[in-house]
Amino acid sequence: MPRIILFLFLLTTLFFSCSEEETVYGCGDAQAINYDPEVNSFCNSCCEYLEIGSFYQGGIVFYLDSTNFHGLVVAMGDLPGEYQWGCYETDILGADLTTLHSGLQNSIDIINSCTDSLSAAFQTSLIQWEGYDDWYLPSKDELLEIYNSIGNGSEESHFFIESLDFENDYYWSSSEYSDKYTWYFHFENGYTYFNDKYETFKVRPIRNF
Question: Bigger pLDDT: 24 or 106?
Answer without folding.
Answer: 106
